Amino acid sequence: xxxxxxxxxxxxxxxxxxxxxxxxxxxxxxxxxxxxxxxxxxxxxxxxxxxxxxxxxxxxxxxxxxxxxxxxxxxxxxxxxxxxxxxxxxxxxxxxxxxxxxxxxxxxxxxxxxxxxxxxxxxxxxxxxxxxxxxxxxxxxxxxxxxxxxxxxxxxxxxxxxxxxxxxxxxxxxxxxxxxxxxxxx
Length: 186
Description:
The protein has six helices and no strands. The protein has helices at about 5-25, 35-55, 60-85, 105-110, 120-140, 150-175. The radius of gyration is 16 Å and the shape is globular.
């Protein structure tokens, strides 16, 4: 199997695993809510996020992947409220007071607007932690040589899936859902 095919397969398997997990915990309804705007925005900020996150992998593997979900939530929130503004945000605009380290709390409290001690904030922290742990476990099961090119590519796919999962959770929280549309005969 060539590398891109392997990476596509890994990404799909991870996305389906996280979708099932989030559906089981009622954060999603079996469908990954997404928009092209939100997905394409990831390409803008991914290189800087990955540069930050890669330095966290050894000591904080779950954090290194999980924080991408919080960015996905913040971007989805901004997409709904004011896409013109959020689409121009730079990666560092997502930082908390302590940079990358408290990005999660900053985005939940200051962007999405949830008090950190609220049940909603605690529930979100719990599901994102579970998704992060599941992601790290799935990566480890792949038995990829650490610090290899393949490990880097798997990591980049994993954080993209975490970003999309966070965005989907926030879109659902805001009441978005997919509906079947029947188009009549013309």
